[in-house]
Amino acid sequence: SGLYSLCSLVFQSQLSKKNDRYYAKDYLKTLRHPFVKNLRLSENIPAAATRTLIHKIEEILTGKIPTSLPGSLFIRPEDIAGLDDLYPLTLETAGRLDIATSPPGRASRKELQRALEAIHQFLFTDWERLSNFQEFAACLGGFLDVLLEKSFMKKYPLNLNIARRMYEVKDELSTASFRQETFDQEEMFKIFDAKIARELVAFHGSPLKGLQILGLFETRSLNFENVIVLDVNEGVLPKLNIYAPLIPREVMISLNLDQLELEEEIQRYQFMRLLSSAKDVHLIYRESKDREKSRFVEELIWEEQKRVAIGSPRGGAKNLLPLQDIVPVTQTRFALKVTPRKTSIPKTPAMIERLRGMRYSASSVNMYLRNPVEFYYNYVLGLKETEDLLDEPEARQVGTFLHELLEDAFRPFLSKKPQIDSAFRSRFAKIFESKFEATLARSMRSDAFLLKAIITGRMERFLDNEASGADRQVEEVLHLESRFEDLLRLPCGDIRFTYVVDRVDRLSDGTHMIVDYKAGAIDQMPRNIASIAAMTLTRESIAENIRSFQLPLYFHYLDRMFPGKPVNAALYNLRTLKFDKFMDAFDEAGRRRTSEVFLKALDFVMSEIFDPETSFESEEDVIPGARTQR
Asked: Where are the alpha helices (DSSP H) in 124-235?
């Protein structure tokens, strides 16, 4: 029921609290409950105004409205209530929606703030310092009083019946002999939940007409002409509570202490008596690998099979007929056929003009290779996914954190040779600690220490690998998180490109190398140049063989930036420390051949993007603004 779910949310918000701060997700779930966001706490604040206020709180905490609060998963209710931006935003939206509040101005703001403080009081503050069941009962009574007086719960009879039972439980707890004994908050919540979760509130109907929904034992001494029994499956009927005492079951039976047979016999009697008094009976059960019909149904089938066999001319058990020949069984199936929906978006002249004027990146070309419709949503329409700041950190956020960490740590080595000594490691640890607490730790609950320990271990191995020089001997760090603009002259036209590179090193052998960090295991290394040169140029074959244009574009840019000098590009996996070089060795003819092959494939892709006859097509459902992993 709605009331029980709200109690569960209130309890959960207390249990997930850290010190005096509430977990923002549980805080919002409680506020968004229908009984809460439709409260009418005063004559000047109607239910619509309360809804508007709570929706504004949600937009603020999830980052849709910029304020000083977003970015932390744990908040204090008083910080929300004291947020100056909240109330003007609420009044502005309420005005646009023609929601009547008190006269505009300070009085209206004060009314909204008082309403929010009252909500915080009965949902959160009152529950914080409970130490015994006498206090718990008083808090529960006040909570139910507010809901009955201020919410629309009284319009729902079922919830009123549940509230009545909760009042009775409240009275039991307030007068119990242990009412003043000290309990932990969590223990009180569990005891109350265990007690109230067993309560059943029946649907009351008229016994003289209409449909009656009854449990098996509610049919005692009642006869019905038409009976429909649902879920006649083993495990549901009979429903047996199996206990496992220390005394063996055989001993229990010999002492007449076993209740299973008795319970089964009682349920069999009620079931058979109900069926024998009816004229029309429908038994409905599910049949699958893990579900079978009840033993009571099997018993009915067996009796009917014996009756038919004995009455047949040849008689005997050998002539038992199958079920379908004795009692017709109607099998209900739902045929579901899912066909992939092909999305096709034709190109307009205005779209072609925009596509030719765009600035491209390796990520945008890669997205087109994977899914042209996703490319259309992201880069043509410019639709971006709204980021929810209350979500737990994803791989994308962790990758961004690592990129920023490495940039800050290695910046003092720009135009210098990096020294991975004890002083650098100490400084690296301080930067890591500060950035982690300011970013990822604020977006996580108590398990932040696990992610911190994992990243710390990987960064230690990364620094050891850098200090050893196993992958490359760095003589000078040339660039960190730098942005380069480029113009590629292809047969399809001049294309502007942007490259954001993580790092450019000058190695001891004179090689200039772009290093791209990868936080996850993503296979973006192109196949060998012979396979790429021999392939038939289609979007699918390019996606399969080249996989990503990132390293080829980086390589081509360095090739023109440092003519005649050895250049290379590499993917550096921060998880496995795998260092994948684009070219194994410097070879003037080989690098010219490499650039030609990849530029030919890139020209094919760009020509298809600019082709007015080629629509953006996909056989997948695409979410606009889908994220890509860096």
From this structure: 133-150, 157-175, 185-197
Q: Kindly report, residue by residue over 144-153, the tens digit of the pLDDT.
A: 998 988 888 8
Q: Give the residue ranges of DSSP H helices in 227-327.
A: 249-254, 260-276, 295-311, 323-326
The answer to whether the Cα torsion of 445, 447, 449, 451 is positive or negative is negative
Nearest residue to 475 via CA among 418, 555, 406, 407 = 418
Q: What are the residues facing 18 on neighbouring strands?
A: 21
Question: For position 628, what pLDDT does the model report?
Answer: 40
Q: Most distant CA pair in the chain: distance in Å?
A: 104
**In Å, how far are 257, 263, 288, 352 from 251, measured between CA atoms?**
9, 18, 36, 85
The pairing of beta strand 74-75 with beta strand 493-507: unpaired
Alpha helices in 377-478 (DSSP H): 395-410, 422-438, 448-468
Beta strands in 7-57 (DSSP E): 22-23
* Eight-state DSSP code of residue 156: -
Over the stretch 445-470, which tens digit does the pLDDT of each residue have? 556 778 888 899 999 999 999 998 88
Helix (H, G, I), strand (E, B) or coil at 486: strand
Nearest to 612 by CA among 440, 492, 521, 457: 492
Cis peptide before 238 (omega within 30 of 0): yes
At 386, the pLDDT band (50, 70, 90 cuts) reads low
Residues 6 or more apart in contact with residue 272 via CB below 8 angstroms:
296
- For residue 281, the cross-strand partners are 227
pTM above 0.85, yes or no: no
pLDDT at 623 over 60: no
Spell out a b/e string for 157-179, using b for 16 or more CB atoms within 10 Å of the CB, else e. Answer: eebebbbeebbeebeebbeeeee
Give the DSSP letter string of 552-592.
HHHHHHHHHHSTTS-EEEEEEETTT--EEES-SS--HHHHH
* Average pLDDT of the segment spanning 500-506: 92
Distance CA 413, CA 428 (A): 13
pLDDT value of position 630: 36
In the prediction, which pLDDT does 625 show? 47
